[in-house]
Write a structure and sequence with these properties.
Layout (H helix, E strand, L loop, with lengths): L2 H26 L2 E2 L7 H20 L8 E3 L11 E3 H11 L4 H29 L7 H23 L4 H15 L5 H9 L8 H31 L3 E2 L12 E2 H26 L5 H4 L18 H9 L4 E4 L2 E4 H29 L8 E2 L6 H20 L2 H8 L3 H40 L1 E8 L5 E6 L34
Parallel strand pairs: 4-8
Antiparallel strand pairs: 1-5, 2-3, 6-7, 9-10
């Protein structure tokens, strides 16, 4: 080979060697939007990290057994009481292990924040349209993460085997029994015999510490890979197009911001754990099937199921020797199934109806620009809120000295009427805000000065708009009567306005 050929080969090899470095440099320069709403996903991620760390620590001390023992620990009111080994070990973590109560409460607070952060993150994605092509798969993964987080939270909430968590397990067993034909067999298998059985805690434990966390970590990993591959959505604005992302580079700016957020989340959770008591199981006592705690309230994320169970009338049907308990089957099985089916299908249905499935969408919508979608989202939130209130109807009735029966009927009516009113009001408000924005951009901002015209009339002076919210248009809009803003040429018109 000639000298020139060998030199060209060495240059080619050097270029190939430098290629990973260049790719790594491009990855470190990847831009992330700066708006605070894009950090809700980070909040969920770091809450999950706290959950994993505290959960690993708790596994060294917790005993997932239902064998009966006599408590002989330092908490005097429960000495000599017969209880399960699971409840006894939870008391030991709280009172005997140094820092045990702090870690246990940090684990519980992190679980609440984790589910809340996923929910808020999903709402941000829904209202801004960030679920559209090519991100339908990420929406599906995020929704599955939310479902798994609900199951993980309920499993962990049930492990201490206290009176409150045992009441929740009793409700879960009733839901299993409501399943037509197979309900009895399902409940018998899960609990290892007739209720309360001897296996439920032993079986929930590996589900809580292995199966569900493994699925959560795997889905979070896939979710993050897709975020990096598909790039972030962003608000419309100068220089922002479907082909780029403007924001802070991954390193060092976004890395520093994200690290600060992780430390803040950890610090706040530890501070809450030290100052705000949560789930004091020693006040509830060990679970007994013949005792039900008064005013039992589950964690907020399953409160809507509790409310649905309380609102449905006692309907039953005898069919071919089987009793269908509609008052349990409808609110606890059919309603959640329909709810999550609609949420899984919504991105595909909306894009088909609007014709947006033909193009990739990388710019976020402002909620006011999509009055129908925003109205549906608010209606769903109101529906959930009514169910959540119904989950505490006894506490509300006692606090405000009103009849629990009257409150139940009020909430039943509100469950049907309130979402419809919320949809109509939200849709009207979105269109009104858009129309006001049209007028503001077309006429400018009033300066407060009054001027007299040549004809003798008076009018206020205006100046061009100079301050804009994220995603707001920066030129006069079209369609002021209907409140339809002008769009970039690539974005199609949306028929739901």
């Amino acid at each position: 080979m000639s000298r020139a050929g060998r030199r060209a080969e060495r240059l080619a090899d050097a270029a190939d060697a430098r290629l990973p470095v260049l790719e790594g440099g491009a990855l470190l320069r990847k831009a992330f939007p700066e708006h605070w709403s894009f950090l809700l996903g980070e909040l969920a991620l770091y809450s999950l990290l706290v959950l994993i760390l505290t959960g690993v620590w708790l596994t060294f001390f917790f005993q997932p057994e239902m064998r009966e023992v006599v408590y002989a620990g330092p908490y005097a009111p429960l000495r000599g009481v017969l209880m399960s080994a699971a409840f006894d070990s939870t008391l030991r973590i709280s009172f005997d292990v140094r820092g045990g109560l702090l870690i246990r409460q940090a684990h519980h607070w992190a679980a609440l924040v984790f589910v809340a952060a996923i929910g808020l993150h999903m709402l941000r994605i829904f209202f801004t349209g960030a679920f559209r092509r090519p991100r339908e798969l990420n929406w599906t993964i995020g929704l599955t993460l939310f479902v798994l987080a609900l199951a993980e939270g309920f499993a962990g909430y049930s492990l201490p085997d206290d009176l409150l968590s045992g009441t929740g397990l009793r409700i879960a067993q009733g839901i299993m029994l409501s399943l037509p034909v197979v309900g009895t067999y399902v409940a018998f298998f899960v609990f290892g015999g007739q209720y309360p059985g001897h296996d439920i805690i032993t079986r929930l434990y590996p589900v809580h510490i292995l199966l569900l966390p493994g699925a959560l970590i795997a889905l979070v990993t896939v979710h993050l890979i897709l975020v990096f591959h598909l790039k972030h959505t962003q608000w419309r604005g100068p220089g922002r197009t479907h082909r780029n992302v403007l924001g802070k580079p991954l390193f060092p700016h976004f890395t520093a911001l994200s690290t600060g957020l992780s430390l803040t989340v950890s610090g706040v959770l530890v501070l809450l754990s030290g100052l705000a008591q949560i789930n004091p199981i020693w006040n509830y006592g060990p679970y007994r099937p013949d005792v039900v705690s008064t005013g039992s309230q589950p964690d907020w994320y399953v409160g809507f199921l509790e409310g649905a169970l309380r609102l449905v009338p006692p309907w039953e049907t005898d069919l071919a020797g089987h009793t269908l308990m509609w008052n349990v089957l409808l609110p606890a099985v059919v309603l959640p199934g329909l709810l999550f089916t609609v949420l899984y299908a919504y991105p595909f249905v909306e894009q088909r109806l609007t014709g947006e499935w033909h193009h990739e969408q990388h710019l976020c919508d402002r909620p006011r620009e999509r009055p129908v979608r925003t109205g549906l989202g608010v209606a769903g939130t109101v529906f959930y809120g009514v169910l959540l209130l119904a989950g505490g109807n006894d506490i509300i009735a006692q606090t405000f000295r009103i009849s629990v029966n009257a409150l139940t009927w009020i909430l039943r009516v509100a469950l049907v009427v309130a979402p419809v009113l919320a949809f109509l009001l939200t849709r009207w408000l979105c269109r009104a805000l858009t129309a006001a924005e049209c007028e503001r951009l077309a006429e400018g901002v009033p300066t407060g000065e009054i001027r007299q015209s040549v004809a003798g009339g008076y009018g206020s002076a205006h100046e061009p708009v100079e301050e804009f919210r994220p995603g707001a248009p920066r030129r006069p809009l079209t369609g002021a009567r209907t409140g339809t803003p002008s769009r970039t040429p690539r974005a199609p018109e949306h028929p739901d306005r």
